[in-house]
Each structure stands twice: as C-alpha cells, then as structure tokens.
Amino acid sequence: MRRSYIVCYDIREAKRLRRVFRVLKGYGEHWQYSVFFCTLKDIDRVRLQSDLESAMNLKEDQALIIDMGSNEGAAREAATIIGEPLLYKAERTVVI
After folding, report:
1. Does the N-terminal or the C-terminal CB of the chain have fewer CB atoms within 10 Å?
2. Kind of pairing, strands 35-41 and 62-69?
3. What is the CATH number of domain 2-71?
C-alpha cells in the first residue's frame, strides 16, 4: 500500500543541499524550494529516510517527513496553495 508524504528540508551547506534535492527528485514531486510531495510504499519510505540521512549532516541539517495518509487524492486536496498554483505533472514518478 502506498502512502503520501510531504517532505520539507533545511540544509545549511550548498553541496549537501544539492545532494538532498537530487535524492528527493528520485522519490517525488518538487512543489516548492524545499518541499516535495511523495507517494511511497513502506519500503520506499524507509529507503528515502536512509538516503536523506546519508546526504545530510545530522548535526546541522533538518528534514521533516509528514505522513498525509493512504489516499493520495485527499492528501493533495488537504494542501492549500496561496499565490501561484502548483503545476501537477500528468506522469507519476516511479521508483524501481
């Protein structure tokens, strides 16, 4: 079963910031500068956390993974966008 997550991060060094961004691009949709929307199986959620921990300095950086539940449509509807709307891609990100 897949669940939806909002992942936000605060990375204090440019090189690590690029690494974390690349990690998250492999798991979900880039919504804002440091915000991603990911729909993941349980094992992919574990892999995401492991990949983030490897890319980050755990004493300086921070990432927040928010579980939005198993209904992707409801998770997307729960997000309120103020200002410029998000551009949703027709295709889904597939992690193999």
Report:
1. C
2. unpaired
3. 3.30.70.240
